[in-house]
Please model this.
Amino acid sequence: MADGAQPASVVIVGAGQGGYQTAASLRELGYQGRITLISAEDVLPYERPPLSKAYLKGEAHEDQLCLRPATYYVRQSIDLVGATVTGIDPAARTVRLSDGSGYDYGHLVLATGATPRTLGVPGAGLRGVHTLRTAEDAATLRASLDGARHAVVVGAGFIGLEFAAVARESGCEVTVVEAQSRPLARVASEYTAEHFTRLHRSAGTRLLFGQGVAALHGDRRGNVAAVELADGSRLPADLVLTGVGVTPRTALAAAAGLPVSGGIIVDSALLTGDPHISAIGDCAAFPQVHSGNLLRLESVQNAVGHARLVAERLTGTARTYRELPWFWSNQLSTTLHIAGLDEEHDAEVVVGDDPDAFSVLLFRGERLLAVESVNRPADHMAARLLLDSGVKVSPGDVTAPGFTLQGHLASRRGGAGGRTISRSETMGARVT
Ligand SMILES: Cc1cc2nc3c(=O)[nH]c(=O)nc-3n(C[C@H](O)[C@H](O)[C@H](O)COP(=O)(O)OP(=O)(O)OC[C@H]3O[C@@H](n4cnc5c(N)ncnc54)[C@H](O)[C@@H]3O)c2cc1C
Model:
């Protein structure tokens, strides 16, 4: 808070992971003022990760997605409002809603998330072409998967590959089309990407890299029937999932005159240019701890961490956001955890001699940037502690005999198991 006093009311736009957590943390911290949590989605706040995993497989019911039951919001005096916020008046400190109503705020939190990008090609609007962001999207997709025979996934990021895994397990023929030369290009090292390429191929999924989509073709009833690639070839398809990234929802903020560039720009306390408005989660671009460069992350940890910081600030404890980012993904038999951020690594060191369970440590010079752990959850936990605590680990430490992340953390003694590999080496053979 600009003046140090608690605001009399907090209005939160967006009741996703970040919006829900802001409300919950405010109450946990003893905030007594009015909390209004406004959701454009007509369901209780829910978590998105199962949408491309357990829920899509039919292993989780809608109710299990909910972060809390309806009674929680009543008990906590959190006013859950189902409407879209259509405008902000920062001078009057009010928001306008789609139903014509309005709310005054002492503090406003923008937790508007992101929207999936769509393919800008002919046929992108055909029936059977999906994106996956909401519970509604997932329900539609799950129903379509039932009768589908040929699924084409455009984009080999987390969402595309998680969907491909479930579609393949459900008996569909699956082809993944990716414009880059490898999967997970934005989020994981070449070594880890190679592992996931092998994993999906061994499950019978076709992966095509360096391929763009030129058009989608439909049948007479307007259902998608084929995907035409940039080289002119065609893939049969009765279901297409587009997983080509998201665009942060910044329109409200921009219209209110707040600075926006690749996200709603906030400072290290997650305040926008207006001291009465914060922005958090997928929609917020915040300064990265080491470089100060603006960063926008899409993860549960980031949305929850942002929400907690804002709740603390609003209840009187100001701090700088410096939490370690971490991520996870489940695909087929494999869990990938990533701790830290790969800010242009120049060396990768692989730990572990099981081809299906290893960790890749990414270094820039002597600094450990991030650790990718495949089926090694204990490594992931140790990596988070290591990166968080500032305990030094160098490529030399890791290549010493007997090295383990856990051992290094506990005693700072070196150990075995890894060897440094150059970036160029990682495209081809695996290192064990
Ligand atoms: C299928 C899927 C799988 C994922 N898997 C993982 C995973 O395994 N691990 C992981 O860490 N992360 C995962 N994520 C990412 C993670 O779910 C997001 O990073 C997280 O939900 C971001 O939270 P948020 O609150 O910023 O945005 P969201 O959860 O997207 O919530 C934003 C909410 O704001 C609402 N809204 C927007 N504008 C308005 C408005 N004007 N008025 C009212 N409401 C508005 C939206 O409707 C939405 O409900 C996954 C995401 C998806 C889609």
About this structure: Residues 13-19, 38-41, 48-49, 51-52, 84-85, 111-113, 132-133, 159, 249, 252, 281-283, 298-301, 303, 327-329 surround flavin-adenine dinucleotide (CB under 6 Å). The radius of gyration is 23 Å. Residues 44 and 87 are 23 Å apart (CA to CA).
